[in-house]
Amino acid sequence: MSEPAASAWRTARWALWLPLVLFALFVALVLGGLLRPENRDIPSRMIGQPMPAFALRAAVPDRPGLARGDLADGRAHLVNIFASWCIPCGVEAPQIAQLAAQGAIIDGIAIRDHPEDLAQYLARNGDPYQRIGADDISAVQLAIGSSGVPETFIVDGKGIIRYQHIGDIRPEEVPMILARLKDAS
Amino acid sequence: MSAIKPRHQRLVLAGFALAALVAAGLLAAWALRSQASFFYLPADMAAHPSAPDREVRLGGMVERGSLHQLADGVTVRFIVTDGRARIPVRFSGIRPALFVEGSGVVAEGRRAGDGTFMADNLLAKHDEHYVPREMKDMTADQARKTVAATK
Amino acid sequence: MLAEFGLAALWLAAALAALQLLGGAMAVRDPDNALGAAVRPVAVVQGLLVAIAFAALVALFGQTDLSVKLVAENSHSAKPLIYKLAGTWGNHEGSMLLWVTVMGLAGGFVALVERRLPEATMRATLAGQAFVSLGFYGFLLFASNPFARLSPPPAEGQGLNPLLQDPGLAFHPPTLYLGYVGLSIAFSFAIGALVTREVGPAFARTMRPWVLGAWIFLTLGITAGSYWAYYDLGWGGWWFWDPVENASLMPWLAATALLHSCSVLAARNALRAWTVMLGVVAFSMSMIGTFLVRSGILTSVHAFAVDPRRGTFILALLAINIGSALVLFALRAATVTEGERFAVTSREGALVFNNVMLSSILGIVLIGTLYPLFTEAFGEKVSVGPPYFNPMTAIFVVPMLLVLAVGPLLRWRRDRLARVQLSLLPPLVVSAGALVAVLALGVRPGLPMVGLVLAPGLAVASMMPLRGRHLRRLPLAVWGMVVAHAGIAVALFGMACDSAFSTEKLVAAHIGDVVAVGPWQVTLSGIEPVAGANWTALEGELLVRYEGGDAIRMTPQARSFWAPPQNTTVSALHTRWNGQLYTVLGEETEDGRWQLRLWWKPFVPLIWGGGFLVALGGVLALAGRVLADLRRIVVRDKIAWRRLRQGRRA
């Protein structure tokens, strides 16, 4: 190979790194996209807002339903939006039970559920709920800005929403929830 | 026939490939700036209407009581709202089963001269948890409307 | 028990993959290392074990064992058996298991049969395969265990999305996966060749059948997926430039380029570094496409099921696999010596042009697919659709098709256009005729018109390599090329006809009404309720007549599933030689009419017929290559045998 061509080729060698650079850009772009939802996954305008007025009938015969007044009793509550037909809720149940064991007051709002199914669900997955309101038309769910099941809200003693957790609570998130609950009370 | 000095062949090939790929990239960047269809909320649409005949998406909630079928049996008009503005929409076709009053919707189409949005396609949510990607970080006020559809 | 058995098999397979990587790596440093000799058998056993794990999961789905979380979330006892089985790969964990299964089986198969390359290169290749597999094993075992139990088991499963209850879709993902993952072999061969600096014709010849095989499955998968979207979505379109579709198109484009550059390398020992690069890119596109779809970063259809950690995990895997391959490429490609030279007007020149055009199209599609992600980083939400993709890809497709008409006629190394001008005359005449016909029909200028003019000429041009050849002695591989290129022309004609000549009618009809669409008279003769295993439907009965001929019965449905509750329309199609009548039933209007959407789409089935021809071309080429290889092995054995006998006699 003659000299000029060889040196030209040598200087063009940086081009071999070009694919790697492009790929790194792709990774950076995607990583940005992946991480962003975490920073903004609490779009709720309801945080800091008082719980809207509602009164739900009892979802199961053996305990009372849920109304706004029940939440503003001076203690912090966890309000768990769930349903017997929702599999992630069943997956989340041990964490809810764990939270209850650590002293959290847990109220449930059952979305579009039947009492028999619900009773079966509670028998199967444990029953940490103090009260369960039946939200047959998703009215309360929508009013508090929840877009799916499961979701969990932390409501402070004055009935003000302090935190919204979208999706199931994973085991490693239990301490975080407990800390937020402590902050709210 | 060959205009290339053989010893430069590799460089010339690499240069040709690079030039074509860069051209493709620039072309794509230029086209995307003018062709990508933008997503509008009704309030955006009211404040800064999209150019007529420009392909855009309009997302929001179907206002209750606004859905009317026209006499031809296949065209509907309804109002898409985000609580701040209301945009009339017209759609001809078979509506997705999940499209009802009070549900969230993303309409693809263009704005007509009279301010009506002419939708070619309606994207309603597909399952319990589906939120059209553009609505993913709407405010809770808007997002909750995407859920209302189920009964 | 079966779940634990499957999990054990998966763990064992992962351990063997680690051993395979270790042995391969040792063999690169020291060719006489004892572990090096174990690489091939280990690869075979690893493939068998992971296949057993997958079979266990299929069996769990077959029994609807609801104590397995994955089954409970994705299956339902009321589902037809075939869809229970298809449920195995209709979810994240199962599809990842299918992914490693195909990788393991392909690697094992290569280890078993491939003897053409130097042993050192083979071991480096199998180590590369193990390296990629190992990441996916880790992902399965630590972040998405498909065999996880649910205690206590639920009473009933969560069902499968009824949109997915369709034979086409049930077998569509595995077909595509065979293509995606088959390309991992090309990736590993590229790694092996770079590591041992053995980039040459033997490398290309060894890699080519594997690329061909993967490419055939990709072609079939894309064709079937397009047809599924066409009849199942009920929108009458056949390609939507949806991220999911682009995810399958991008590896196909890269694999097509790779196939063509492979033939240059195999025949002429040129385009060495480029072919290696494409080997890396093709599988990278498979992984990137799968990642974009599975991570939910582009389509949040299952927003809740997406766990950001899971997406990050796959991304890290991608970064390691692709990143290290690209670093290896950057370090080694400069030491790959330059290949043979050729003139611009030559077979090589045409194939280089084809490669650059395909890569540009790939770039256009990739940029368009990622653009929404890019703008979102700046807080602006956009979606990119056909107004971008159609003209942008056409800019590169049209010149590529023109060169496709000429390239196969050119000789290797150097040639003159004057020599082939006689062969170019018939295609030119046909295209000119098509132009006259199109103008006479009053087709408006635009892309469909370009397609209508180009396609017939291209079809004739693709046959020209047969001119003056002895047809019965022509190698199968040449037949494969001719059929595949003709398939492109056929598909192009179908696409152009759909855009240029389709007619649509949207009406609300009373029972007994007659609607005309194109040459068809459609009578709505009744609406009946019908029921299936897990759905009920309203079925419209249509009596359709083509130009006043005999009535044909068609039954589009509006179907409701009950687990989970969901409604879909099921379109009804009637295919004639010259097109397809497409009917969709909507809902009842307030005054008792029924919505009907009807399309007459002349020649539209040619789109998928063309895609099928392209795949058939691939099969012919693959058969030709494999038969030639077998013949060579037989001859070599004969010679060896004769030598042995002569030696004995002497």
Low-confidence stretches of chain A: 38-43
The count of helical stretches of chain A stands at 7
Globular, elongated, flat, extended or rod-shaped: what is the shape of chain A?
elongated
**Main sheet specs of chain C:** 6 strands, antiparallel
Secondary-structure element order of chain A, N to C: HHEEHEHEHEHEEH
What's the story with the biggest beta sheet of chain A?
5 strands, mixed
- The portion of residues assigned to helices of chain C is 55-70%
What are the secondary-structure elements of chain C, in order, as H or E?
HHHHHHHHHHHHEHHHHEEEEEEEEEEH
CATH architecture of the largest domain in chain A: 3-Layer(aba) Sandwich
Structural class of chain A: alpha/beta
In total, how many beta strands of chain C?
11
What's the quick description here?
The complex is a heterotrimer of chains A (185), B (151) and C (650). Chain B is an alpha+beta fold and 151 residues long. Helix content of chain B is 25%, strand content 28%.
Task: Describe what this molecule looks like in 3D.
- The complex is a heterotrimer of chains A (185), B (151) and C (650).
- Chain A is of the alpha/beta class and 185 residues long.
- Chain A has two domains: 3-39; 55-184, Glutaredoxin (3-Layer(aba) Sandwich).
- Chain A is 42% helix and 18% strand.
- In chain A, strands 5-4-3-6-7 form a five-stranded mixed sheet. A two-stranded antiparallel ribbon of chain A has the order 1-2.
- Chain A is elongated and about 80 Å long.
- Chain B has 151 residues and is an alpha+beta fold.
- Chain B has two domains: 6-35; 39-146, Nucleic acid-binding proteins (OB fold (Dihydrolipoamide Acetyltransferase, E2P)), CATH 2.40.50.140.
- Chain B contains three helices and seven strands, in the order αβαββββββα.
- Chain B has helices at 9-35, 42-47, 140-143, and strands spanning 37-40, 56-62, 68-69, 75-81, 86-92, 104-111, 117-124.
- Chain B has a five-stranded mixed barrel with strand order 2-4-5-7-6.
- The termini of chain B are far apart.
- Among the domains of chain C are: 1-165, no CATH class; 416-501 and 605-622 and 631-635, no CATH class; 505-602, no CATH class.
- β1 (37-40) of chain B pairs antiparallel with β1 (382-383) of chain C.
